[in-house]
Amino acid sequence: MNIVIFKTENAVFEFYRKDVKEHLINLTAENSVDEAVRLLKLILTASGETILIPNQHDYFGYIALELIDAGKGSVTCKVCGKIYNTNELKPITVGHGRSPFDVNLENKGGVKNLFRRKQKLPAMFGGKGYHCPEGHELISIITWRT
Question: CA-CA distance, 57 to 35, in Å (whole number)?
Answer without folding.
Answer: 8
